Amino acid sequence: MSLTDRQLLSGDSAIALAALHGGVALGTGYPGTPSTEILEYLSHLGGKAQWAPNEKVALEVGIGVAYGGARSLVTMKHVGLNVAADPLFSVAHTGVVGALVIVSADDPGMASSQNEQDNRRYAVAAAVPMLEPADSQEAYDYTLAAIEISERWKIPVLLRVTTRVCHTQAPVQPRAAVVPPKPHFEHDLRGRNLIPSNARPAHRRLRQKLSEMTDWSEITPLNHVISGDKKLGIITSGVCFMHAREAFPDASFLKLGFTHPLPLKKIAEFVGSVERCVVIEEGDPYLADAIRAAGLAVESKPEMFRFGELNVDRVRRILAHDNSPEPVRPPGKPPELCDGCGHHVVFQALKNLDCIVAGDIGCYALGVLPPYSAMDCCVCMGSSIGIGLGLRHVLPDAEAKRVVSVIGDSTFVHSGMTGLAEMIYNPPPTGHVVVILDNSTTAMTGHQEHPGTGRTLDHAATGKIVYEDLGRALGIEEVRVFPLGKDCAEFQQLIVEALASEKLVLIVARRPCVLAAKSIRDYENRDKCSTGCSAQEVLAQ
Amino acid sequence: MKKPINVVIAGLGGQGVIKASDILSEAAFRSGCEVKKSEIHGMSQRGGSVTSDVRFGPQVLSPMVPPGEADFLVVLAPDQVAVNRGLLRAGGVLIAPGLIDPTTLSNRKSFNVALLGALSTHLEFSEEEWRSAIQSVLPEKLHAANEQAFAAGRRAATATKVQS
C-alpha cells in the first residue's frame, strides 16, 4: 500500500500523514491523551518529530521553525495549551513566516484527563483562527487547510480536535505531497520584539487579520450548508455533526469547520431559512453564545448536556427537550497500578506512615485509588512540589512534617524543576521531601521518551538529564537514589529518616516501568554496544 | 440510508480488545464497507475496562454505537458481560468468553482473535478478507497462532449453532 492509497486511519494518524504531505519540517509536542499518537505516527512515516520537555517549549520551538520560514506542527492535549498559553498569545501578535499549526486535543467526558476544558475559548482569547474536523478525512484535509491559512495570514492556527476524532479510525483518501518553501531568515525586529511600542501596532495588525479572516469564513467551503427539511436546522461542528446527522438525517445542516472567526452572516442566513434552529455542540456553549450575542434566536442544549461527550442518543434528547435522567452505565473496572509495578512499595510506605501526599499527573495518580488511597491531591503537571511546599509553610509542625511530594520522571522534567527551585529559594521551616518516582519512561500515555531517558522520540540515544545530579547542582541538601525492590520496609525507613531530618530531601525512587522494562533494556544494550559507553548503566538495575 | 452493522468489543486492558477491533475494522474496510472504529483508551493499559465500537456498512456517521443498538457484543472477560449487556439491541447476539476455552489455543493471547472467529460466522466477509486483516494488523510471528485461534473460534460457534 502506498501512502496516497485510501486507508483506514485514526484522526491522529491522519493529522500526521497530512503533516508529512503538507511539508511540515518539524513536529514537536508533549505526550498527552488523546494527542500522543500524532507525533509517533509522523516519525513512523519518516517525518521529523520530537518530544519537547513540555508544551510551552514545544510551541516555542514551533515558533522558531515558523519564523525560519518552514512549516511546523505542535501537538498537545487540551491542558497542555494552558502550559503553552504564554507563547500562544504572543505569537498571535508577532505572526509567523512559515506555517504554525497547533493541535489542541480536547477530552470531553474526561476519558483520560483532569478537566473538561473547552479550548475553543483559546481561539477567541488569543485571537487565532480555528478549525474543527469531524472525522479522520477532515483531520487530514483540515491539517492541510491549516497550513495554508497559517501561511496566507501569517498567523498560528489552532486545529481543535476531540478524543472521538483523534481515536476513531475511518477511511482517508490522501492527496499528493507538496514541496514546501525553503527555510530562510529575514530580520523583522519591530514585528517580532514585543516591547510595548511594537506590541501596540502588532495588536492592530492582528485584529485586521481577524477581520479579513471573518470575510473569508463567510465564503470558505469549510463552512457549508446541507439543505434538507426546512422545519429543522442544526448548526454544529466537529464530531457532533456526525451524531446529529445520524440522529436527524433529513434536517438542514450548517456544518462549521472554520469556527473562529465565525461566519455570522452565513449563520444568520441559515437561522432565517429554517423554522426551528438548534445548536449542537459538546462542552461549553461556544457557538450558541456567539450566535445569540449576534442577536440570533437559536436553541441550545440544557446545562446537563455540558457534561460528557455527546452521542446520537443525547442529540435526540436535546432535540426532544428530554431532560429526564439519562441511563447510567454500570461502572466498569477502574484502572490500577500494574501487577509487578515496582512503585507499589512507595504508596504502601506512604500509606503505612500516614503521610500527607501531594501527588502529580501520571500513572502515580493511580495511587489515589484503592488499595492505597495514598494521595491527597493531583492538580496539574508538576504541581506536587509547589503544593507540598505550600502545605509545609502553613500546617502545624506535627502535620507539616508528614508532607511528601511525589512526582513521576517525565512530569518532573515537564514542570517539576521550577518546583525544586522554589524549594531551594523558599524552604519551609520543617524542610521538605520530594520523591521522584522514576520509571524511566512516560508510562501513562504509552511509553514515550523524554529528556530524562536519554533517548529521542524514535529511541535514538541523546543527551540525558540525571535527576540526582540536577538536585545536587541546585543545592538540595540530601539527595538519595533508591533502587526499588519488592521490600517496602527499607524504603519506608528512608522516608522516616528523610521526614525526621527536617532538611530539603530529594529521593529518586528508581525502577523501570514493568511494561516498558524489556524495550528499555534492549535500547540500553544497543547503545552500549554501539558506543561502548556505560552512562546508561544506572537505569539497568 | 441503510443502517450500519454495530459491533461492540469489551474486555479488560491487556486482553487485546483494541487489536481485535483493529482486525474487524480492517476486514470490513477490505470488503469495501465504510468503517468507523472508536474506543476510549489512555488509561486502558492499566487493567481497567475497555470497550471498542466498530460500525460498518454503506455509510457510517457517528463513530459510537448508540446504547442499546449493538447488533453484536463480543466480550473477552467474564466479569465484563453484565456491565456491557445493556449495549446490545433486543435480538442482538452476545459472543461470550465462555464459548472458547483459552487453554485449548496454541497461544492463549490469541483468545481475542478466537472470539473474532466466532463473530465471523455471523458476518459476510470472506475468509481471505479476514486473513489479510489479521496479517495486516499483527506481526508476522503471530500469524499462525492467530489464524489457528480464528479457525477454532469459527468451529466453536458453528458447533454451538448446530446444537441450538
In short:
Chain A is 40% helix and 18% strand. With 541 residues, chain A is of the alpha/beta class.
Can you write the helix and strand succession of chain B as a string? EHEEEHEHHH
Summed over residues and divided by their number, the pLDDT of chain B gives a mean of 92
Largest sheet of chain A: 7 strands, mixed
CATH architecture of the largest domain in chain A: 3-Layer(aba) Sandwich
Shape of chain A: globular
Poorly predicted sequence stretches spanning 5 or more consecutive residues of chain A? 534-541
**What average pLDDT do the residues of chain A reach?**
95
Rg of chain A, Å, rounded: 25 Å
CATH topology of the largest domain in chain A: Rossmann fold
Q: Can you tell me the CATH superfamily of chain B?
A: Pyruvate-ferredoxin oxidoreductase, PFOR, domain III
Helical segment count of chain B: 5
Query: Approximately what portion of the residues of chain A adopt beta-strand conformation?
Result: 15-25%
Task: Give me the oligomer status.
Answer: heterodimer
Tell me the domain tally of chain B. Answer: 1
Radius of gyration of chain B: 15 Å
Content-based structural category of chain A: alpha/beta
The main sheet of chain B orders its strands as: 2-3-1-4-5
Overall 3D form of chain B:
globular
CATH architecture of chain B: 3-Layer(aba) Sandwich
Please give the share of residues in helix of chain B. 25-40%
